[in-house]
């Protein structure tokens, strides 16, 4: 008597309870997805509301294109250009350093390293991500900035380059871990196929594995970019924070994150300067959003091509 | 329910009685007949309760030291100190989340307007003074700078040490960021209220960062609070006057500023007692210990 009943329960359609549970879980997961979008929207609205006063009084363009940053004199001058260009240099230097090294390291870890070396190297990379940025900043102040000052014959070692190098080191773990995951998830049948056709291990890597993992590596670089542009502490300690619009990374620079972090503490709440800092946050948000959107579009196109 | 209320009220009355007894005892020994409390070393009144203080980062260590020492003088009081900057402290005072705001600058007109709109009357009490030392690398030959020249240096009009009698080398300008009370002070006193800091000045994120960079960089010049002078850097005399506690106090040193505490209206109760203690000998001794300049007694 019991046997047929269990059989029908197994093969038949799910019962009322499990169907209800399924619906609940599906709704809950959908809610999580929507919540992420809602939070992003809320951040945008929050920034917009707080920067409203600055946008009304000064206008967006004069701030975005202004070259003078003198927030406390009368009349105050709020030009974002020194910070924008500074952020650009620091992030540029960081990525120039971190992308080749990061991808190289991930290729080594995924394709060539074996056994213990691989395990130890991977845990060291993970440990790198756990080093607080203040500590790296201190190391930069003590060791890197004198080296850079001497090497390039500068007045001071506090430059966009110095900050960029340290920020680059900080973005390495992000880029390495995520690219390594992407490379690792390429099916081994593809590698075997390539090897069977007479390709060497290195040819297999750059002709087959790298293209197959390219979308994941691209995502890793984008996350690294987000990490680099958002870094604050190291930049405050090493970039020099001058008011100049830096023409070269060898000059002292300020960044958007650094400016906001440094000045938020002392501004009059609800005042113009306060609102301008939120406007700067809004610009930063817009830039990172645009970069991520562009990256997503590129990825999407890539995926479609691979599907064919 | 009833029993719990009973215990609660009992505890409160017990506490009240004991506090009352303590203060009563104190006043009876100092003599209530004279009206004015004579100059005894005892704390003025044992006001109990909590007092929240927030504001200037320059003052945060000093303020913490006061709070700790005051806890021993008056165990019934609980003083909590937070930093965050003068602007944040004043904002907190206006929002009525703190009773006292620390500030290393005068309250701005914009803030007074805001405070009045929120029904807060800011009253400032000067609690200490701070002198500003101008520091250079120990290898620098320059020993003195006039206040005028210092202004020219920070406006970017003088860019080479040669012009100040030093080596033929570019001046590396170090300063604080605009959130710092010190930055504002140098802006007003040295650079000029309607003039601009040189864009090439590096806005360091802390006073210690200025000291560290000056110690390493032979061409650097920076300004720091008196308490930050150390053997690793060389302080310049300004207009021929060295920056010492004495010269700041008698105002012969050209770069000195007040440190203030701001309350909502004239301070009352615990806040009044606390400020009175700070202005007294014990509080002012801590000022000196922390490297600031105590007020003349």
Protein architecture, described:
The complex is a heterodimer of chains A (308) and B (297). With 308 residues, chain A is an all-alpha fold. Chain A is 79% helix and 1% strand. In chain A, strands 1-2 form a two-stranded antiparallel sheet. The radius of gyration of chain A is 25 Å and the shape is globular. Chain B is elongated, with a radius of gyration of 23 Å. In chain B, strands 1, 2, 3, 4, 5, 6, 7, 8, 9 and 10 form a 10-stranded mixed sheet that branches. In chain B, strand 6, helix 6 and strand 7 form a beta-alpha-beta unit. Chains A and B meet through helix 6 and helix 11 of A and helix 3, helix 4, helix 6, strand 7 and helix 7 of B.
In short:
The complex is a heterodimer of chains A (308) and B (297). Chain A is mostly helical.
- Poorly predicted regions of chain A are 5-9
Reported for the largest beta sheet of chain A, the result is: 2 strands, antiparallel
Mean pLDDT of chain B: 81
Strand content of chain B: 15-25%
What is the N-to-C succession of helices and strands of chain B? HEHEHEHEEHEHEHEEHEHH
Annotation field: number of helices of chain A: 12
Helix content of chain B: 25-40%
Structural class of chain B: alpha/beta
Beta fraction of chain A: under 5%
Sequence of strands across the biggest β-sheet of chain A:
1-2
| Rg calc of chain B | 23 Å
Annotation, overall tally of beta strands of chain A: 2
User: What is the general shape of chain B?
Assistant: elongated
Secondary-structure-based class of chain A equals: mainly alpha
- Cα(first) to Cα(last) distance of chain A is 53 Å
Q: What radius of gyration of chain A results from the CA coordinates?
A: 25 Å
Give the largest chain-chain interface (CB within 8 Å). A-B, 33 and 44 residues
Number of helices of chain B: 10
Q: Averaging pLDDT over every residue of chain A, what do you get? A: 88
Global outline of chain A: globular
């Amino acid at each position: 008597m019991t046997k047929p009943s269990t059989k029908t329960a197994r093969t038949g359609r799910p019962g009322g309870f499990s169907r209800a549970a399924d619906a609940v879980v599906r709704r809950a997961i959908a809610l999580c997805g929507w919540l992420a979008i809602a939070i992003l929207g809320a951040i945008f609205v929050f920034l917009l509301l707080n920067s409203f006063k600055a946008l009304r009084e000064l206008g967006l363009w004069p701030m975005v294109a202004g070259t003078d940053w003198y927030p406390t004199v009368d009349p105050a001058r709020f030009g974002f250009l020194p910070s924008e260009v500074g952020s650009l240099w620091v992030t540029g230097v960081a990525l120039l350093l971190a992308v080749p090294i990061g991808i190289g390291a991930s290729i080594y870890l995924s394709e060539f390293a074996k056994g213990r070396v691989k395990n130890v190297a991977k845990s060291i990379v993970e440990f790198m991500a756990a080093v607080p940025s203040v500590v790296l900043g201190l190391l930069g102040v003590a060791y890197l900035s004198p080296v850079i000052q001497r090497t390039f014959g500068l007045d001071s070692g506090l430059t966009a380059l110095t900050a960029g190098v340290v920020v680059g080191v900080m973005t390495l773990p992000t880029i390495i871990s995520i690219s390594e995951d992407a490379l690792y998830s390429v099916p081994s049948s593809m590698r075997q196929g390539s090897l069977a056709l007479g390709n060497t291990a290195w040819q297999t890597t750059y002709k087959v594995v790298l293209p197959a993992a390219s979308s994941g590596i691209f995502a890793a670089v984008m996350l690294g970019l987000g990490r680099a542009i958002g870094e604050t502490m190291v930049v405050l300690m090493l970039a020099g924070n001058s008011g100049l619009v830096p023409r070269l990374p060898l000059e002292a620079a300020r960044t958007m994150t650094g400016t906001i972090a440094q000045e938020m503490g002392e501004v009059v709440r609800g005042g113009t300067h306060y609102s301008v800092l939120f406007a700067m946050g809004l610009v930063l948000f817009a830039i990172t959003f645009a970069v991520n959107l562009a990256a997503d579009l590129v990825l999407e196109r890539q995926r479609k091509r691979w599907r064919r | 329910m009833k029993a719990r209320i009973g215990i609660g009220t009992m505890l409160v009355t017990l506490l009240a009685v004991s506090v009352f007894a303590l203060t009563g005892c104190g006043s009876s020994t100092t003599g209530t007949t004279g009206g004015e409390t004579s100059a005894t070393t005892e704390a003025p009144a044992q006001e109990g309760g909590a007092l929240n203080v927030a504001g200037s980062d320059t003052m945060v260590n000093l303020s913490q030291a006061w709070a700790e020492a005051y806890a021993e003088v008056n165990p019934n009081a609980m003083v909590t100190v937070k930093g965050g900057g003068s602007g944040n402290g004043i904002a907190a005072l206006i929002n009525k989340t703190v009773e006292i705001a620390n500030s290393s600058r005068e309250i701005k007109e914009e803030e007074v307007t805001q405070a009045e709109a929120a029904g807060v009357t800011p009253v400032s009490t000067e609690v200490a003074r701070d002198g500003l030392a101008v520091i250079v690398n120990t290898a620098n030959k320059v020993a003195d700078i006039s206040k005028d020249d210092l202004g020219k240096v920070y406006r970017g009009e003088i860019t080479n040490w040669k012009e100040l009698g030093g080596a033929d080398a570019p001046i590396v300008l170090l300063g604080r960021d605009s959130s710092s009370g010190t930055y504002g002070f140098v802006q007003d006193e040295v650079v000029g209220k309607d003039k601009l800091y040189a864009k090439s000045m590096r806005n360091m994120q802390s006073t210690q960062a200025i000291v560290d960079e000056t110690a390493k960089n032979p061409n650097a010049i920076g300004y720091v609070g008196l308490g930050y002078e150390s053997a690793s850097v060389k302080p310049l005399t300004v207009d021929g006057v060295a920056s010492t506690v004495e010269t700041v106090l008698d105002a012969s040193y050209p770069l000195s500023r007040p440190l203030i505490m701001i309350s909502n209206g004239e301070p009352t109760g615990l806040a009044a007692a606390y400020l009175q203690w700070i202005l007294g000998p014990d509080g002012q001794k801590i000022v000196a210990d922390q490297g600031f300049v105590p007020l003349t007694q």
